[in-house]
Amino acid sequence: MSLESSIAEIFGKSCKSEISGNSFGSHCTYYPGKWELNPGDGAFYGPKIDVTIRDALRRPFQCATIQLDFQLPERFNLKYRSADEAAAADAGKPPPRPVMIHRAILGSLERFIAVITEHFAGKWPFWLSPRQVLVVPVAAPYREYASEVADKLSILGLYVDVDNGENTLPKKIRNGEIAQYNFILVVGQDELDSRSVNVRNRDDVGTKARTETLPLDVIAEKLLALKTSRSLHNKLQ
Fold it and tell me: Long-range contacts for 230-234 (Cβ within 8 Å, ≥24 apart)?
């Protein structure tokens, strides 16, 4: 993160820009991470805070930014009414002028999406993933239960797909792994009888043995908790 101040004249208001830059700096001291001051690198209309992130090749890109703009309020002759307006008028003071704030948390959305996609290498954390859960029946008789599981999780706001195609079970699971689904839920006779699902984690690719089986209500609760936590780790608690 960097603070870029500007002391160039802005309609003869150079002092205003400098003071606001100092105010920005005093607030940056509360930021727990590292930040640096770049004098003179602010916009022509005022100082700004820039957040720079690096892509998978360690190239820096400026994304988020918050900028103070003294120019447009001057150009449009903007004023606002305050609680002490009457006292200010009696004292001969002009109405106060606002300061415009330009706030772009993601910066260029296309650039941000490109950088974050490269950063996660397509393995999105659960709360961001467009492919959160894939339900796979072991055979045709269990397709109805697979759809029931998917419907229950979808109602809770999760992104869920069902593979009721004609591929073999290993092929369906492999397809789900390649598509980077966070979790693959396998259902068969045992799961149907116990109203449960067999859970396969995306980060345990290649596991051939039977994995953990959880009741349907429990897995729904755990998935919602993982989504709410916004954790970067694909792990159920």
Answer: 230/125, 230/127, 231/125, 231/126, 231/127, 232/125, 233/125, 234/123, 234/125, 234/126, 234/182, 234/183, 234/201, 234/202, 234/203
171-215, pLDDT tens digit by residue?
Answer: 999 999 999 999 999 999 999 999 999 999 988 866 655 678 999
pTM: 0.71
The amino acid sitting at 179 is: A
Q: What is the DSSP string of the chain?
A: -EEEE--S-STT-HHHHHHHHHHHHHHHTT-SS--EEEET-SBTTB-EEEEEEE-TT--EEEEEEEEEESHHHHHTT-----TTHHHHHHTTPPPP---EEEEESSSSHHHHHHHHHHHHTT---TTT-S--EEEEESSGGGHHHHHHHHHHHHHTT--EEE--SSS-HHHHHHHHHHTT-SEEEEE-HHHHHHTEEEEEEGGGTT--S---EEEHHHHHHHHHHHHHHT-SS----
Nearby residues of 207 by Cβ (< 8 Å), 6 or more positions away:
200
Query: Measured between alpha carbons, how far is 153 from 92 in angstroms, rounded to an integer?
Result: 65
Q: DSSP string spanning 14-31?
A: HHHHHHHHHHHHHHHTT-
